[in-house]
């Protein structure tokens, strides 16, 4: 029988209080997930938790050469690292839950599980669309307090103006954090590739994030990837304008 309860498995002995909690799940340009995954790699973070929830995966099966592969059970993970005298807990996964109900449930349970560690603040990584390609993109901010939002200006973050919504877990985690009186910030990188993989938006987020938390992050690998992507995309655009085909390596652009 399938268990449809969300159970968060955490190694409590390896997590310290006064956390900086960071979350990044798939979204536009895969921006949030790529930023979170890069932090995990550069911080040499240790896996300290996971959520087995096969019912939250896409309703498909995968096959290889006609043979059905095993269903994926572990969709979400948590990683812990101590860097620059600060304690980071990073949450990521391979998907967003497929319904509003499960997005709310996952977001609430994650915040409820981590609040015992007295998190200083919650950061989530997300994206906002732009309609023309740019190498130099902006980072916008949304925060749970006005003074916190104004403080972000010091790091080059542009406060999000007007009415708006942040869909999915990357937004809901901040909302549930506020219910528990935990400060929260959403950083949104501009992305042109809303349905493809963007390499520029996550770089812009991590540059800003490094300044905000005052921790050095080695961004050379991501900078190289972003610059290579920029060159190839520029060639692709030139090819389209001249009626030629773009580089084959840009097959993921949509």
Overview of the structural elements:
- With 254 residues, this protein is α/β, with parallel strands linked by helices.
- The chain has a single domain, classed as Rossmann fold.
- Helices cover 31% and strands 24% of the residues.
- The chain has six helices and eleven strands.
- The strands form two sheets. It has a nine-stranded mixed sheet, sandwiched between helices. It has a two-stranded antiparallel sheet with strand order 4-5.
- β6 and β7 form a beta hairpin.
- α1 (31-42) packs across α5 (201-213).
- The chain is globular and about 60 Å long.
- The termini are far apart.
Characterize this entry briefly:
The chain is an alpha/beta fold and 254 residues long.
Chain-wise SSE layout:
Elements: E1 8-10, E2 19-24, H1 31-42, E3 46-52, E4 63-64, E5 67-68, E6 74-83, E7 86-93, H2 100-114, E8 121-129, E9 139-143, H3 146-152, E10 158-159, H4 169-179, E11 184-191, H5 201-213, H6 220-241
Parallel strand pairs: 2-7, 2-8, 8-11, 9-10
Antiparallel strand pairs: 1-3, 3-6, 4-5, 6-7, 9-11
Helix pairs in contact: 1-5, 2-4
**Could you describe the largest sheet, including whether it forms a barrel?**
9 strands, mixed
Shape: globular
Count of distinct strands: 11
CATH topology description: Rossmann fold
Proper CATH architecture? 3-Layer(aba) Sandwich
Radius of gyration: 19 Å
Q: Compute the average pLDDT.
A: 87
Secondary structural class: alpha/beta
Number of helices: 6
Uncertain ranges: 246-254
Helical content band: 25-40%
Kindly report the spatial arrangement of strands forming the biggest sheet.
1-3-6-7-2-8-11-9-10
| Distance, first to last CA | 39 Å
Secondary-structure element string: EEHEEEEEHEEHEHEHH
Can you say what the CATH homologous superfamily is?
PAC-like subunit
Strand content: 15-25%
CATH level 1 name: Alpha Beta
Overall tally of domains: 1
